[in-house]
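We were asked to recover a plausible sequence for a given structure. The inputs and outputs are reproduced exactly as logged, with field labels preserved.

PROBLEM: sequence recovery
POSITIONS: 409
GIVEN STRUCTURE:
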C-alpha cells in the first residue's frame, strides 16, 4: 500500500479508522522515562517490521505501521510528549502530525508533488527504504574502508546507501571523531550510523538529514564528548510564514541536540543514503579525529554554548520587543490621526478667513480668466466703459497723406 502525501487531515483520518488509540509508550514498547535514543531505536525496529514494502496487501500490518509512526510522532517531539504525559491524546494536536514519506513506494505523481513542494521550501520528511534497512540487518551490505583524513568522492543512486567503515583507536575515540558529508551539487542525502545488533547484522542508530548551508548541502555527526546542536528547518515553518518577525525570534527554536553515541576503539559503520526525488546524489564523505583540529573543537564547543544562551535571550527579548512594537504602532497611529486633525483645522481656518469678503464666494474662488468671462456674461453695464473722446485724439500714422511732387526734367 502506498503512503499518502501529507495533507490536511490525511493521517488524522487514517488514525481515526483504528478501533482504539493505544498508549504511544505501549505501542513502541518503551518505558515512560525512556530516552530519546531508546524511543528512536524502538520506532525504527517496529517500522521496519511493519513496513508496507514487507507486508504487501496486509492491512493489519499497514494499520500497525501507521500506529507506530503516529506514536513516534508524539514521543519524538518534546513538546507533544510533555502535553501527552499531562493530558493524554486530547492535548496532542493531530493536525500538526507529520508522517515521513517512503519515496521508494510513493509513486511517480506524488513524488513530483513532493519534489515541487521541497523546491518551494516546504520541508518534506522522508524515511529510509525498508530494503536498505533489511539488507543492513541481514549483513548483506558492502562496506568500504574510510580512513581518517582521506575524503571519498562518489555518487549514490536515490533510495540506495553506500556503507563505510571507520576504524579508530581508543585514543582517537577519547579525543573525538567527526564524520561529515557535503554535496557541491546540493544533493539531498542522509548520513546514517549503524550499530552491531545482538542478533547479528547492523541496526540503524543515528540519522542526520542534509541541510543547505551556503552553496552546499551538508550533514555531520560529532562524537566530541560535548553536546552539539542542529537546526531543524521544519520547526515553526507555519509560524514564520504568518509573521515576519517570528522568522527571527523563532529561528533558534529549531535548535535540537544531535543524538550522540559513545564511540570506542574499533570499526564503526556509517552510510550515505541518496535522498533525491529523481536523480542520484553526488557527495564527499570524510572522517577526522578531533585531535587534528584542537582549535576548531574548542571553538565549536564555545559557539554551541553561545547559541544556546542566545536562544534563551531571544525568548526574553521577544516579549520586550512585542511590547515596544505595540506601543510604537499606537504612537504612529496617533501621529497620523493628529496630523490629519491639524490639516483639517488649518483648512477650516482658511475657509473662514476667506468668508470675510463682499465678493461672492463663486468669484473669490475663480481664476482671472474665468472672472473675465463671467463679467462679459453680466453685460456691458457691468464691464468698464471707454471714453469715446479719447479715441478721437488718437492719431494713426497710417492715415497720414504724404504728397510727392514730381519735378519735370
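RECOVERED SEQUENCE:
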Amino acid at each position: 500500500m502506498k503512503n499518502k502525501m501529507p495533507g490536511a487531515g490525511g493521517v488524522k483520518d487514517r488514525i481515526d479508522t483504528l478501533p482504539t488509540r493505544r498508549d504511544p509508550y505501549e505501542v513502541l514498547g518503551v518505558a515512560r522515562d525512556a530516552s530519546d535514543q531508546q524511543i528512536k531505536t524502538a520506532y525504527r525496529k517496529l517500522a521496519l517490521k511493519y513496513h508496507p514494502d514487507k507486508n504487501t496487501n496486509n492491512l493489519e500490518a499497514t494499520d500497525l505501521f501507521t500506529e507506530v509512526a503516529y506514536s513516534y510522532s508524539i514521543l519524538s517531539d518534546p513538546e507533544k510528549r510533555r502535553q501527552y504525559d499531562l493530558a493524554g491524546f486530547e492535548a496532542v494536536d493531530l493536525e500538526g502530525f507529520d508522517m515521513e514519506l517512503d519515496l521508494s513506494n510513493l509513486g511517480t505523481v506524488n513524488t513530483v508533488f513532493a519534489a515541487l513542494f521541497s523546491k518551494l521550501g516546504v520541508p518534506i520528511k522522508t524515511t529510509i527504504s525498508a530494503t536498505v534497512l533489511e539488507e543492513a540487518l541481514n549483513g548483506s551490505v558492502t562496506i568500504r574502508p574510510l580512513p581518517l583524513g582521506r575524503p571519498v568522492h562518489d555518487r549514490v543512486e536515490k533510495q540506495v546507501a553506500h556503507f563505510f567503515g571507520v576504524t579508530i583507536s581508543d585514543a582517537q575515540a577519547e579525543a573525538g571523531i567527526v564524520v561529515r558529508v557535503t554535496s557541491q551539487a546540493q544533493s539531498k542525502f542522509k548520513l546514517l550510523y549503524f550499530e552491531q545488533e545482538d542478533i547479528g547484522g547492523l541496526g540503524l542508530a543515528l540519522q542526520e538529514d542534509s541541510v543547505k548551508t551556503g552553496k552546499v548541502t551538508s550533514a555531520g555527526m560529532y562524537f566530541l564528548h560535548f553536546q552539539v546542536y542542529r537546526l531543524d528547518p521544519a520547526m515553526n515553518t507555519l509560524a514564520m510564514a504568518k509573521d515576519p518577525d517570528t522568522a527571527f525570534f523563532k529561528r533558534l527554536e529549531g535548535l535540537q541536540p544531535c543524538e550522540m553515541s559513545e564511540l570506542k576503539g574499533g570499526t564503526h559503520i556509517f552510510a550515505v543514503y541518496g535522498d533525491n526525488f529523481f536523480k542520484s546524489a553526488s557527495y564527499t564523505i570524510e572522517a577526522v579525529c578531533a585531535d587534528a583540529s584542537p582549535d576548531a573543537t574548542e571553538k565549536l564547543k564555545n559557539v554551541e554554548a553561545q547559541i544556546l544562551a542566545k536562544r534563551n535571550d531571544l525568548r526574553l527579548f521577544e516579549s520586550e520587543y512585542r511590547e515596544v512594537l505595540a506601543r510604537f504602532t499606537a504612537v504612529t497611529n496617533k501621529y497620523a490621526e493628529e496630523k490629519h486633525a491639524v490639516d483639517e483645522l488649518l483648512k477650516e481656518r482658511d475657509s473662514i478667513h476667506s468668508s470675510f469678503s463682499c465678493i461672492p464666494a463663486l468669484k473669490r474662488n475663480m481664476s482671472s480668466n474665468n472672472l473675465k468671462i463671467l463679467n462679459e456674461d453680466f453685460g456691458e453695464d457691468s464691464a468698464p466703459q471707454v471714453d469715446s473722446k479719447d479715441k478721437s485724439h488718437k492719431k494713426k500714422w497710417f492715415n497720414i497723406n504724404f504728397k510727392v511732387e514730381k519735378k519735370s526734367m
